[in-house]
Amino acid sequence: MKFISFRIENGNYTKLKDAIIKLSGKTPTAFFSAIANKIISQHTTDVDTISSKESPLSNVRQIRLSDEMLNQLTLQADSRHWSVAKEIRFMLNLAMTTEPVLLDEEVEELRRARNAVNT
Questions:
Q1: What pLDDT score was predicted for residue 85?
Q2: Of 5, 8, 20, 119, whose CB neighbour count within 10 A is largest?
Q3: First-to-final CA distance of the chain
Q4: Residue 37: closest CA among 50, 25, 26
């Protein structure tokens, strides 16, 4: 079993805790655990309505990145002809899944290699 944590200001934690308890009746730990388990079990239609009151979880988040992180994300996004936002979503998805994720170019390369062996 893995332990996952993140840092948040004390005042913001109190606000988050109160909001989560009000929405779902769960502690923040139980709430985030339920979200993670829903994602893992691939109940994608249920991920948007985790709380007991069926409220949507389609919140927009603002994140802070160092210049180096933004440069790396921009380079990766440019190489795939994606936006930085799409690259961030892809990287998050990649980090949350245990299944191998291949890009279209990688799949195409594997097909070419397979076809070369077959001929």
A1: 85
A2: 20
A3: 46
A4: 50
- Token pair, residue 7, equals 């840092």
117 vs 100, 103, 107, 109, CA distance in Å? 23, 21, 15, 12
CA pair distance 56, 46, nearest whole angstrom: 10
Whether 23 and 51 have beta carbons less than 8 Å apart is answered as yes
User: Tokens for 112?
Assistant: 């070419």
Q: What is the mean pLDDT of residues 7-30?
A: 88
Q: Which of 14, 38, 15, 18 is nearest to 26 (CA)?
A: 18
Instruction: Kindly tell me the number of DSSP H helices and DSSP E strands found in the chain.
Output: 6, 0
At 30, list the tokens: 């139980």
**Tokens representing 31?**
């709430």
Predicted confidence at residue 74, as pLDDT, reads 94
